[in-house]
Every structure is written in structure tokens, then in C-alpha cells.
Design brief:
474 residues, alpha/beta, Rossmann fold, seven-stranded mixed β-sheet, 15 helices, flat
Length: 474
Amino acid sequence: MNLSKTKIAAIRKLVISDYIAALVAWLLFWGYRHYLLEQIDFWNSWKIFGARDYLMTIVIIPGGWLVLYMLAGTYFDLYRKSRLDEVNRTLISCILGSILVSLFIFANDAEDYSYFIRTTGRYLFIHTAATLFSRLLLLNHVKNNLIEGKVGFNTLIIGGNQKAIDIYKKVSGSTKVLGNIFKGFIYSTKENGNGMSRHLPQLGHLSELEQIIDEHEIEEVIVAVDTSEHHLLENIITRLSYRPVVVKIQPDLYDIISGSVKTSNVYDAVLIHIYPDLMPDWQRVCKRAFDIFASAMALIILSPVLLFAAIRVKLSSAGPIIYKQQRIGLFGEPFYIYKFRSMYTDAEQHGPALSSTDDKRITPWGKFMRKWRIDELPQFLNILKGEMSLVGPRPERQYFINKIIETHPHYKYLHKVKPGLTSWGMVQFGYAENVDEMVDRMKYDLLYIENCSLMLDVKIMAYTLIVLFQGRGK
């Protein structure tokens, strides 16, 4: 989703305010704690403030709280948060964080458990009060920005019927602060009335949906099709599923796609929010953190293997060591994937072609690398750059994607997540040698997307290691 400078600034302010709140809360409690332990006057307690205390106060404690808040999803979709939800989220985070801080820092202060409970309770109160105060101030500022129209969500309506008109009027006239900035509408069919054009400009036709979203930086799409047009809904949802937009539909249409999408908040009994968040915020953060850590460690630990493989590639045949090829990633964005070159340089002089088991284009050393998947190791760089993940559907070229979606448009669902170094499809099926096999492998990857979790990622990585140790890479 595109973030304006105002939205980015608000997130930055929230991070800074959380840091200051954690810092102030810890300073206040530090003095109070030493007063309890050593009967030192609160103000005189700062005379024994040492280097270790300084590091703890400035870096470790506030930094730990920021990590916890990030895992809790505090800094995601700030402008869509309700104050009540944020209060609940803050209370839960503060209780958990205070317990963790107490266990690591306060537990050795005294043998009296009642003292431990009292100190934890007081720290929880001080920290929660400081954090809630700063957050509610900032959220009020955010809501005021939405009310005044300084920031909002560029919104497109699909449909030009009476339902679409009613939705537009209800949302734009809602007493709730929804923040929709209506850019225009498109007809769900070629033409079905001209009433909507009196309220919003027509931006184009349904066939131009993706282009319109990019051109007008659309962040939210409201689907309002007639009952007679229900057959269009699945196609529209499929096309929107791999775009970074929020999608809302009418409740009476929900039963059509029940079970294939997730829903959350209901807005004024008008719209249901269909969202693509396949993992909870904390799991998404953990997944990315593990991607970075594991990739960095892999590049360091496997550096001798990488060096040896690079030398062998150079000696095996003429051409570059690293082969770059454009693939399609998250939300259909192209990127260049890195691989050790395993084919001769003129391998695709007659056009794009998938490799096969006895492919003559593969060098002898390339066959060995593919068997153990050594040729894929440079993709740890793609993972560090954020273009890929350790686990996710394998990225493909646009040429083959176009062939697949002609008969299987659901392939676009694979672009709802980052492509991966390994996947459930790779474990269960392996490399595909033709488009039909790519379609067969897609079924496993779709299952992964609908059920993705950190535990499933761990299982897939474990099965991948088994495949590698057995030499069944290709």
C-alpha cells in the first residue's frame, strides 16, 4: 500500500513517542526502585547512575519495548486503527512486556515475592500510563487528519448501479471517520446506467482495472456489483488479490466467496473488509526477522561453498558466474533473481524454455549443482534485499505466468506473498518441466498460502533439508 509523507511521518512520531514513554517510565521507576531497595532519596539516587544503567536506560529497555510493539503490529496500518482496539493492544503489550522486564531485571532484587509483585505492578502502571497517554494523543491527531481530509485512502468504486450510489452516499456521509477519498468509479460491465457519473468521474473500464489502480494510486476498492453480475465477483476478487489494496464488498455478496477469503470489521452495516493479511502481524515480523538472520548466517557459513561453486562455474564453461533473470514477485512486481549459472550461455537463443532432467543445455557442473540445489544459494541475497523469503511459492517469469493464467487465473493468488527459496510445491512436486507441471505444483502453493504460518514454514524448511540430504533436488 502506498504511504504518503503524512502517514510515514505519523508512524515515525509513534515510534519516537513510544521510545520516549519507555525511557521516561524506566527513569522514574529506576529512582523509585533504588529508594525502595536502599532507602536512598529519590533525587539522590541519580548519583549512583552508572554506565551500565545508562546503557540499560537509553538502549536496551526502550529498544526492547519497540521490538515488542512491532511484533504486536502497533506500527501497521496506523490510520485504520480504532482507539478502543489500540487501548486493548497497548494493555496486553504492556502487561507482557512488564512481566518480561521484571523476570530479567527485578527477580534478583529480593527474596520476598510480594516485593517482586509490587515492583512489577508499579512498573506496569507507570509504563502503561506513559504509553497510553502519548499514544492516545497521537491517535487523536491522526483522526483529526482524517476528519480534515489532510490524509486518507484513495478509493475506487467498481459499479455504477444504484447500490454503488447508495454505498458512496453512506460512506461519504458516515458519522464514522473512514478516511475515504473517492477518486472515481468504473462500470462492472460496459454500461449500466449513468447515475453514478453525477457523483464521481468515470476512470475507465473494468478491463483497465490494474492500470487504473496504479495510475491513481488506489489504496481501497469497493466492489458494488448487481445481483445479476455475481459471476463477475470472483474474477474481480482474483485480480485484486495480488494488488496492495484493501477490498470491501457488500455483506449480501459475502456468501458467494465464503471460505475463500477472510473478513474483519463491519462498517455501518454497509461494507465487509476483505483483507489479504495471511499471517498475524507478529508472525509477519518474525518471519522477516528470521529471513534476514538465516540468510546472513547462511552466506557467512556457506562462504567456502559459494567460493568453490563460483570457481567451478567459471571453469566449467564460458560466461558469467552469476546468472540474473527477471522474475515476478510480491503483488506482481518484477525483480532480478540471482543463481549460479548452470547452463551454457546460449541456452535460450530460441526463446524461453523450462529445463528438463536430461537437458543438453545444462553443463556437467550445473547438473551437480541442481541435484543439491547449490545453484540457488545466491538467492540468499534476494532474501536479504526483501525481494524473496525463505519459504514461499517459487517465482516464475512473466512469459510462463501469462501462459498459465490463460486457463488458470487463480495463479495470481501466488503473488499475495513473497516468492521463496523453497516452497510446499517444491517439496511435494519439485521442479516443473512444462506448464502443466507448473499448474500441478501451483495446487500445493495455493494450499500453503491459505494455511501459511510460522510453524508451516518450519515444517517446509525441515522437509527441504531432507530432500537436499537425499540428493533429490533435480
